[in-house]
Task: inverse folding
């Protein structure tokens, strides 16, 4: 009943044996030992498990690992390079877009695909774009700011201030 | 949450998939986008013993206009519908509907065919298909057959897709003339199933009269439904406010909502009336700007 | 603008320093409990009751044990052998770890399955067959108080009813006299519904008992690791697990909000199984288990009354509460405060008479309730007083802002003795509300509202001007299970002038690694980048009561400042020794001591610390370390003025928050960026119960929304773009003048939102709406007033 699957995670090829029912998130966390992607619900509601599958943001709690056979996967662990942090990581840090950090990896992975498709999203588009990711800590204001900051950075535009607008 | 164990196959042709369905019998299920099925399996509401993943079958994902029809391959993802130029230009109803379906990640995987074949009156595309007068192409080992949307939904999670068959294409009469369509649902929060939803399509003739109309309703009946009496009132009319109000009234009377956490029957009928009115007006204004 | 005493490099108080903890979280290197993997670790899953109230006739684990990989199935009868089937709650009630005969709420733990991986454990759970004899549950707390109601807790000796406790405060007679003669009385029954913290990380643990060393390492999602260690020792001491043999490690926590204060049965079962098997046991809840079985918050039924003069002077308030605690009182309140700090409910207003009483009752619901981002029942109290203030304003025909301005305690009246016994330390309520009104453009909005109303459009403006009470607390009054609610800090500065500091608190996202470093930087002048903060390991950190109730800054933050001041005193002695001057001749500026009148003669803190290890004065202890256990002389009283603007769709009754301005006064601010972030987050947790969230049960005891599909946590779409600001009234008794902020927005936002919605429809005959105010609820209220005519 078990299947052998092969996929790339952050550029490295992995072959693992899985039961068909094994969820991709469990395989990534427990068999590939990359624990940056999280599990926050059981109904595909929270988005903490969001990763990129062939560049598309995906809830890896709702994909079977067998479905990832032959795919390229990117997780939060694959964002930073030798040159430094990914602009979205920098944006989240500089704009205080995380508190407990649990939703952060999924939120960033979703934001990356959104910015790829729409490099200059409006605030409204950002809010709808991350509607599949729950954050219980930040109230979302600074997540919106972080994504706007990353958008500017990725296009070499003038960077918005990262000082808090605290009257 | 963890599903029961099952066998998994990912055939590369439709013929193979159909053969596997026949081989495994009733306990086999098709895995399309999987974003309705996998959550149900995790909660153990569904426990198929075989999953037949049809994502590796080429040629089931496309959007094209051909022979007076808008043809959408069953495996076309919601996101592809959302981003299609043809659809953005002429079939605004899809933009309205997809934006309100679950969330972007789910729409990256959820398919149009799956949304229909799931047979859930809470899903949004059934109402859209009623409004647009769609037909559904189903493929089995006897070949293809086409079923009008009005004959597609048989009951709770039951459709015209019989065992051993696969839904392969959605066919929609192409937009022509002054054609407009719109969809909206009331929802408790973004991505929720509809408290009540209404899909509307109108075509307006040169004399300002309604030459074509369709209205479908979401989650206010045990199966997806068409608001027939509303359509009859509108067809051939001048689409005046009075007629629209009458049509909205009919829709609210003809639906059959049940009370749940989203609201009671009265509230849902009220929403159907309000949204029907709004969607008709939006479809009409879009129709006037088209053509 | 906030003035800073230290340079940006030092990064003391007032600097918006970016957070030190972010690096690991943004790179997927956080270490949450489910990330922990130990050799030989087994997994636990829990069989739960489908019934709210039932006798357990039998539990058959045969089929489960036949599944390869299932190691054991543990029931209440197994735990009973070790007297571990019951445990005490923080309120000295008793709670089942696993039942031996009766289940008391739906989703209660019934048996635990131990297996080699989580998939097998789940299969095992499905295979356990439990035979129940269902009984009719008691779900309505008012019916549970009836004399003829069946007694739910016959296990408690002599119990003949479902009443848990009665509490009261204030002057009953004086209050009654005022009510009897008052011009105006407003009265409203309201329910602050049962909700859930729903942190995105659920609860879980890895219990690792080492049989050879007789030592337990307990990795768990806890906001209070030290208290938990003591509780484990008290519960398991009789099997040889004494406190020095227990190490509780609270790793990174994915949100706590009060939900990770209690001890849940799952933790205890995991410890018991690890103790018996010698294998590490991992238990991680599903979201459904988390929502359905972990401690709820709120669930207060309040009858609130306010008396006043016809020209709008508040004279007295009277609140009567029925608290639904589920089947056991598993609240997390200080021992002497069964209703927590509910008595803060006289609010920000200057009047002299109040009476409050509360009764708690058992029902067949999950136990609780926790202080969800709230300093122990303050949210309930603030909702009552702020709703009543608005109702009173409407009744006397006064603008709610004007009425508040006229009734506020004036800043020169502080310290102010409240009619329920609190001594408010400081505040400037007029300044806060004025700033909020100016920011939002209050007068213009009132004009717009009148114009919109003429067009049949519904727009509302709601205000909440609340006073919080946080930072529990003075040891004379506050304890948890007898342990006084002080908190601690230990600072150790290394010879090269870099430091590590350890605390008894535990951050769950609040940014302690940054703010504590800033407090120490402020006091010692060591750059905050070079101050490492550690929490959450009971083997290394000094004892403390943990992080909840906005208490970390008021208590542990103060402890950090006090410990740093001890070090500065020592530094002064060393500096005097090094420069061969007397201590009186030295003056401090952040980072160095210099000689008065000769500023070129100075020693930096780094030079001084190095000398503490290399060249300290004779007779002085070497090294540079200090510890402080801070016992606050009073609580702190943060306040806020919030204004919310809503637009209501007159046909669908959809409610949109157009703007929300929050002005907070949390005293001196350590890190404005973090304070603002806390306010944003708390506001979204305020809109949640105001408009979306409520745990709903049917009469048969079934939870109707036990998943994230139906328990409606707001997304970025529902959450508006928050506008924030602040006033500063330092806490006079606090070493750094700070008050705590994490909870103010959660406490203050709901009444502002509801007041706005009621304001939008008040002219249509609506005086009050129960939270969460959903479009459906609003529709029904308007329909009842005939708003939709007959053919709706």
Result:
């Amino acid at each position: 009943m078990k299947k052998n699957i092969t996929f790339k995670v952050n550029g490295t090829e992995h072959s693992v044996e899985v039961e068909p029912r094994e969820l991709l998130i469990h395989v990534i966390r427990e068999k590939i030992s990359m624990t940056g992607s999280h599990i926050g619900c059981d109904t595909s509601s929270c988005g903490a498990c969001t990763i990129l599958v062939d560049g598309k943001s995906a809830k890896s709690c709702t994909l079977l690992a067998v479905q990832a056979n032959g795919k390229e996967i990117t997780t939060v662990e694959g964002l930073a390079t030798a040159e430094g942090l990914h602009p979205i990581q920098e944006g989240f840090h500089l704009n205080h877009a995380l508190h407990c950090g649990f939703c952060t990896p999924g939120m960033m992975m979703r934001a990356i695909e959104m910015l790829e498709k729409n490099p200059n999203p409006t605030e409204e588009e950002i809010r709808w774009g991350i509607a599949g990711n729950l954050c219980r800590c930040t109230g979302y204001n600074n997540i919106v700011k972080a994504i706007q900051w990353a958008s500017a950075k990725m296009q070499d535009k003038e960077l918005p201030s990262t000082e808090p607008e605290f009257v | 949450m963890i599903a029961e164990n099952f066998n998994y196959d990912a055939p590369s042709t439709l013929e193979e998939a159909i053969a596997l369905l026949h081989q495994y019998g009733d306990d086999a299920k098709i895995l399309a986008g999987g974003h309705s099925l996998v959550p149900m399996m995790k909660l153990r509401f569904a426990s198929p013993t075989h999953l037949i993943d049809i994502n590796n079958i080429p040629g089931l994902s496309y959007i094209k206009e051909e022979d007076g029809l808008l043809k959408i391959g069953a495996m076309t993802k919601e996101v592809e519908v959302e981003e299609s130029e043809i659809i953005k230009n002429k079939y605004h109803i899809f933009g309205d509907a997809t934006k309100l379906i679950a969330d972007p990640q789910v729409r990256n995987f959820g398919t149009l065919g799956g949304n229909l074949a799931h047979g859930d009156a809470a899903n949004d595309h059934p109402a859209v298909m009623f409004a647009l007068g769609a037909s559904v192409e189903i493929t089995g080992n006897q070949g293809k057959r086409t079923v009008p949307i009005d004959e597609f939904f048989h009951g709770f999670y039951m459709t015209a897709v019989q065992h051993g068959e696969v839904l392969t294409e959605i066919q929609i009469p192409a937009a022509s003339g002054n054609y407009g369509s719109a969809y909206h649902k009331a929802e408790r929060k973004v991505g929720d199933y509809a408290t009540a939803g209404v899909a509307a399509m109108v075509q307006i003739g040169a004399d300002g009269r309604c030459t074509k109309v369709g209205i479908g309703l979401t989650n206010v009946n045990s199966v997806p439904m068409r608001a027939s009496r509303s359509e009859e009132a509108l067809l051939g009319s001048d689409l005046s406010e009075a007629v629209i109000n009458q049509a909205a009234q009919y829709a609210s009377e003809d639906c059959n909502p049940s009370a749940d956490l989203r609201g009671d029957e009265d509230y849902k009928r009220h929403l159907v009336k309000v949204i029907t009115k709004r969607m008709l007006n939006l479809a009409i204004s879009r129709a006037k700007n088209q053509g | 603008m906030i003035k800073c005493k230290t340079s940006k490099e030092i990064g003391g108080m007032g600097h918006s320093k970016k957070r030190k903890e972010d690096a690991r979280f943004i790179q997927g290197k956080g270490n949450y409990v489910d990330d922990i993997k130990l050799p030989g670790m087994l997994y636990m899953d829990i069989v739960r009751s489908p019934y709210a109230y039932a006798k357990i006739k039998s539990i058959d684990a045969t089929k489960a044990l036949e599944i390869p990989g299932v190691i054991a199935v543990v029931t209440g009868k197994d735990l009973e052998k070790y007297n571990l089937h019951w445990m005490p709650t923080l309120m000295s009630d008793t709670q089942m770890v696993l039942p031996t005969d009766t289940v008391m709420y739906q989703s209660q733990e019934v048996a635990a399955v131990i297996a080699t991986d989580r998939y097998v454990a789940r299969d095992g759970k499905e295979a356990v067959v439990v035979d129940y004899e269902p009984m009719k549950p008691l779900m309505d707390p008012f019916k549970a108080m009836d004399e003829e109601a069946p007694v739910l807790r016959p296990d408690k000796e002599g119990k003949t009813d479902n009443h848990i406790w009665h509490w009261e405060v204030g002057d009953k007679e004086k209050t009654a006299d005022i009510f009897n003669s008052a011009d105006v009385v407003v009265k409203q029954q309201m329910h602050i519904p049962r909700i859930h913290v729903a942190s995105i990380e659920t609860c879980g643990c890895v219990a690792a008992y080492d049989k050879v060393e007789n030592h337990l390492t307990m990795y768990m999602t806890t906001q209070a690791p030290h208290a938990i260690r003591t509780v484990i020792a008290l519960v398991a001491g009789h099997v040889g697990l004494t406190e020095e043999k227990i190490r509780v490690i609270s790793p990174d926590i994915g949100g706590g909000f009060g939900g990770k204060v209690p001890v849940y049965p799952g933790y205890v079962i995991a410890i018991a199984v690890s103790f018996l098997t010698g294998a590490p046991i991992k238990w991680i809840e599903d979201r459904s288990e988390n929502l359905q079985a972990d401690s709820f918050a709120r669930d207060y039924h309040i009858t609130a009354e306010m008396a006043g003069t016809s020209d709008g002077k508040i004279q007295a308030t009277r609140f009567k509460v029925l608290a639904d605690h589920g089947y056991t009182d598993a609240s997390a309140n200080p021992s002497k405060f069964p209703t927590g700090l509910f008595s803060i409910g006289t609010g920000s207003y200057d009047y002299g008479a109040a009476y409050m009483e509360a009764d708690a009752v058992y029902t067949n619901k999950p136990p609780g309730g926790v202080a969800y981002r709230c300093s122990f029942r303050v949210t309930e109290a603030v909702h009552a007083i702020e709703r009543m203030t608005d109702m009173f304003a409407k009744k006397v025909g006064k603008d709610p802002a004007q009425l508040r301005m006229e009734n506020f305690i004036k800043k020169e009246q502080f310290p102010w003795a409240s009619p329920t016994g609190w001594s408010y330390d400081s505040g400037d309520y007029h300044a806060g509300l004025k700033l909020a009104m100016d920011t939002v453009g209050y007068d213009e909005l009132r004009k717009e509202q009148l114009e919109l109303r003429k067009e049949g459009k519904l727009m509302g403006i709601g205000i909440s001007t609340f006073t919080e009470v946080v930072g529990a607390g003075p040891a004379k009054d506050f304890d948890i299970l007898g342990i006084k609610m002080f908190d601690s800090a230990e600072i150790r500065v290394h010879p090269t002038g870099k430091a590590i500091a350890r605390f008894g608190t535990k951050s769950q996202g609040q940014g302690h690694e940054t703010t504590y470093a800033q407090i120490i930087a402020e006091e010692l002048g060591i750059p905050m980048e070079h101050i490492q903060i550690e929490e959450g390991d009971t083997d290394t950190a000094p004892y403390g009561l943990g992080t909840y109730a906005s208490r970390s800054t008021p208590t542990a933050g103060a402890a950090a400042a006090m410990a740093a001041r001890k070090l500065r005193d020592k530094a002064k002695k060393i500096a005097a020794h090094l420069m061969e001057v007397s201590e009186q001749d030295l003056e401090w500026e952040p980072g160095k001591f210099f000689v008065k009148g000769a500023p070129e003669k100075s020693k930096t803190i780094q030079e001084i610390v190095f000398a503490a290890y290399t060249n300290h004065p004779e007779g002085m202890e070497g090294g540079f370390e200090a510890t402080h256990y801070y016992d606050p002389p009073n609580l702190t009283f943060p306040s806020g003025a919030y204004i919310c603007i809503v637009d209501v769709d007159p046909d669908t009754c959809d409610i949109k928050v157009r703007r929300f301005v929050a002005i907070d006064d949390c005293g001196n601010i350590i890190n404005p960026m973090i304070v603002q972030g806390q306010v944003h987050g708390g506001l979204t947790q305020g809109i949640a119960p105001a408009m979306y969230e409520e745990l709903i049960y049917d009469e048969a005891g079934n939870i109707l929304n036990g998943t994230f599909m139906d328990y409606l946590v707001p997304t970025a779409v529902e959450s508006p773009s928050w506008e924030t600001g602040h006033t500063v009234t330092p806490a006079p008794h606090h070493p750094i003048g700070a008050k705590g902020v994490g909870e103010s927005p959660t406490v203050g936002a709901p009444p502002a939102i509801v007041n706005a919605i009621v304001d939008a429809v008040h002219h249509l005959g609506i005086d009050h709406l129960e939270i969460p105010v959903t479009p459906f609820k609003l529709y029904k209220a308007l329909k009842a007033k005939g708003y939709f005519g007959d053919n709706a």
User: Anything to note?
Assistant: Chain C has three domains: 22-30+487-630, 33-136+203-284, 296-472+634-784.
